[in-house]
Amino acid sequence: THVTFTCNTQQPGCNNVCYDTFAPVLHLRFWVFQIVLVSTPSIFYIVFILHKIAKDEKLNGQRAQMVAQRYPQSRCGRIGKDGMEVLKVDMPTYCHYREDWDAKEREGVEQSSLEEDGGKVGEDPTQQSNRVLLIYILHVLLRSVMEITFLVGQFFLFGFTVPQLYRCETYPCPTRTDCFVSRATEKTIFLNFMFSIGFSCFLLNIAELHYLGWVYIFRILCSACFTCCSHERDTIRLYSNHNALLLQLRHSLRSQLAL
């Protein structure tokens, strides 16, 4: 801190100016600012995914309610004392044949409701899956850029070591002044620790992008740039069948949207 940074001079203001030159930004404040900014893309991505899941659950509830209103599962009779079903005269007779649906009929009802809701959404599940993947890739790229930016900034501001003796030649110091830094070894250890943590996070981001596939990333970014020009673009051919992570993301999103 500024209190433990002492210079061998009695010139007013020299101590403050030398400390400002030695440490333009306090280490702790710089690291807090770094953590907040680097975490921001991930926070926004999580909020986006939670909002999308809530929206999909709401649409699924509306579809289930629509199916229940179209085809009510009501019994046509009541059970008598002898255990036999007694038919009512005022109930339609065809409902006994509609009580148990087969798999094809249920699939047809769900598909019709999905097509009707597709007009409200305006997109098919493949396009929505590509949008989620695009936002995920952009958030990883933005996080990587922030990590490398803070690493470069930390290097130019502090370097890799904190010296025990700092020689200051800044006005209003009359001559070259020697200033002594408190706990320089401890600050050097934490400085290198934060360097290693930031560089490790950057390598993890690069590994994550490499696992997704660089060819697929470039293709989906290019397709996002030309989406407004070609609305009927075949997005399925951009799909990589050899990527387990993309398969899992797409299948999970399609299952959520097709319910």
TrEMBL record:
Domain of life per record: Eukaryota
SMART domains: CNX (SM00037), Connexin_CCC (SM01089)
Ranges in coiled-coil conformation: none
Localization in the cell: Cell junction, Gap junction; Cell membrane
UniProt GO cellular component terms: connexin complex
Membrane topology value: Multi-pass membrane protein
One Pfam family it belongs to: Connexin
Keyword Metal-binding: no
Connexin cysteine-rich domain location: 146-212
Record InterPro entries: Connexin, Connexin_CCC, Connexin_CS, Connexin_N, Connexin_N_sf
Ranges for domain Connexin N-terminal: 1-29
Gene Ontology biological-process entries: cell-cell signaling
Segments passing through the bilayer: 30-50, 133-157, 189-207
Gene3D superfamilies, sorted: Gap junction channel protein cysteine-rich domain (1.20.1440.80)
GO function terms (MF aspect): gap junction channel activity
The keyword Thylakoid belongs to this UniProt entry's keyword annotation: no
Assigned keywords, A-Z: Cell junction, Cell membrane, Gap junction, Membrane, Transmembrane, Transmembrane helix
Protein name as annotated: Gap junction protein
Annotated source species: Gasterosteus aculeatus
